[in-house]
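Lab notebook: predicted structure, single chain.

Context: the supervisor wants predicted structures on file for every construct in the current expression panel, including those that have not yet been purified. This is the next one on the list. No modifications to the sequence; it matches the entry in the shared construct table.
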Amino acid sequence: MSDSSKTGQGPCTYRSDMTTTPRLAALGLVVSDMAASLAFYRQLGLDVPPEADTAPHAEATLPGGMRVLWDTEEVIRSFDPGWTRPQGGDRMGPAFRCGSPAEVDAVYEALVSAGHRGRLKPWDAVWGQRYAVVLDPDGCGVSLFADAT
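Prediction complete. Output recorded below exactly as produced.
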């Protein structure tokens, strides 16, 4: 075993029971229209190059190293022929922290004005945040939130 894995500096953390602990490093989204999906997430500040619009796979690295991955439905079916598009609600939804309650309202309005569907208009949630949900082009609920001031 390398020194980096023993010290926790490598890709997995070494534990005394001789096992490793996986670390969440990326979130993947399966999309029906790459260009539409990337345009939506660019509006939320993710940096994805324009040439990715026509690619079957795209990635963006966030501050801190987490990656967001996009794959077309065709890519998924290429290695999992039995894959079918999920039906009946969100399985997982990205959440974007905004700088203020006013920014939640502004980002929600900008996305809806750009033609995206709002699910929940901004409101002051009982847990102390300004909160809203807008749908990405594939119908995935994307939360926008900020601490209430």
